[in-house]
Amino acid sequence: MKSDEILIEAESWIRTPFHHKAMIKGVGVDCAHFVIGVFRETGLGPDLKVEDYPPDWHLHQGGERFLNYLRQYCDQVEDPQPGDIAMFQFGRCASHAAIVVDWPLVIHAYYRQGVVYASAEGSELKGRLHSFWRAK
């Protein structure tokens, strides 16, 4: 079952430090590259090369950069299932991704925390949910 594969791989990234634009398990990763890495390693997604982006791009631009990538490889869904992607709005657009474990429990790579479990109803994620996505 693909959701099991996604969750096993996502959990293997736990405690990886946060590092902007990095994607090395155990060394450093940001939220976008965490999702890319998990889906690449499970064979459920391509090895994407993301265009360069500054760490604060979402604060100054309204363009949905992140969603434009997701739309190519995922379908938007209403009811989150394990292994789906939850998108959150920080700044002007949907700019933060997490992998759903059992909604509202997610795994995500977060600044100064690294890859951790979190509740989407708690602290930094509360009130920021934008949408859910499932790999095609």
Structure description:
- The chain is α+β, with helices and mostly antiparallel strands.
- It has a single domain, classed as endopeptidase domain like (from Nostoc punctiforme) (endopeptidase fold (from Nostoc punctiforme)).
- Helix content is 25%, strand content 32%.
- It is built from 4 helices and 8 strands; from the N terminus they run αββαααββββββ.
- Strands 3-8-4-5-6-7 form a 6-stranded antiparallel sheet. A two-stranded antiparallel ribbon has the order 1-2.
- The radius of gyration is 13 Å and the shape is globular.
- The model has no long low-confidence stretch (mean pLDDT 90).
Question: Which CATH first-tier class would you pick?
Answer: Alpha Beta
Helix/strand-derived category reads alpha+beta
Gap between N and C termini: 14 Å
CATH homologous superfamily classification = endopeptidase domain like (from Nostoc punctiforme)
> Helicity range of the residues?
25-40%
Main β-sheet: number of strands, strand sense, barrel status? 6 strands, antiparallel
How many beta strands in the DSSP annotation? 8
Q: Average the pLDDT over all residues and give the rounded result.
A: 90
* Element-by-element helix/strand order: HEEHHHEEEEEE
Look up the CATH topology: endopeptidase fold (from Nostoc punctiforme)
Radius of gyration: 13 Å
Beta content: 25-35%
Contiguous runs where pLDDT drops below 50 for at least 5 residues: none
Strand arrangement in the largest pleated sheet: 3-8-4-5-6-7
Tell me, briefly, the overall form.
Answer: globular
